[in-house]
What does this fold into?
Amino acid sequence: MLRPFSRAAEVYCRSYSLPLQRAITDFGADVPFGRIREKLREHHGIEVPISSAQAITQNHAACVHQTQLLHTEIPTKAGVEQLIVEMDGTLIPIVEAPDAVDEDGNQIDRRTTRQTRFKEVRLALARSSEECQPKFGATFGSPDDAGDSLLDCAIAAGLVANTQVHAVGDGAQWIANTVKARFGDQATYLLDFYHLSEYLAAASTVCAPTHPDTWLEQQQQHLKRNGWQQVLSALRPNLEPETATDEQAPVTAAYRYIENRPHQLDYQAAIAANFPIGSGEIESAHRYVILERLDIAGAWWTVEKAEELLSLRVLRANQRWDDYWANLTPLAA
It folds into this structure.
């Protein structure tokens, strides 16, 4: 017969073994630091101060971040024939606090002087066309840093000199440029079909006000057969005057979006090869790799702490969690 848990059985920690640090960090990678204490109490009967749980999680996150090594030299050994890669950016809440003292040396209350903003984190994934589990890379840095991150996870997924790369992304020019810079002629870049469809959906109410859904479906079918010129023909009679603002010109916006990217619209080949035509995989990864922990209600991060915790979550998403702990020297707590 199971007996109910007794608070008298709780253990109060004065030191932290490596297995306990691992349990704390495991919780801290998933939930707000304030909830680590209750989870440890619930699952292990251990009482740990919130401050210690936070410090241990952040220590390991910093260690992961500081020791990560990006591989940017494409191997010549055997790899995979085909890779799928995707990239996208999302925004994370960031807080910037000024110096703790003013010009006269008086203490400043950081809570009243901090500045908040959102900063973009760029996430990349790569996987073999035969695999479901991707490798991830993430950075708060520049598009060039994102390119290194993309190349690193592509190499981890099996990229070699003769691997063909199928890249999918939205219309952000930095993504297409990054793919070209890192993979050259090995890669083809496909514009996210569903992102393009949003432009056409906005134009449909102008081009076919009585049957916009039917019109949209027709244009999507044209695109899937590489008939983007037919789509331009359907848009052309309804182009707004040049004096119209972007908000007042959905047809013109869709027309330009397609006209400027004809080399990114080979949906027919992608469908024939059973490759993705949309970037839903990376958009979903934003949620479970980044946002579930870094965009929780009430949380604001310094860039440094956000980068470190992000590295911890990417480590686990890449299934290297066990390797990290197996090769770790115990930290002083």
Observations:
- The chain has 14 helices and seven strands.
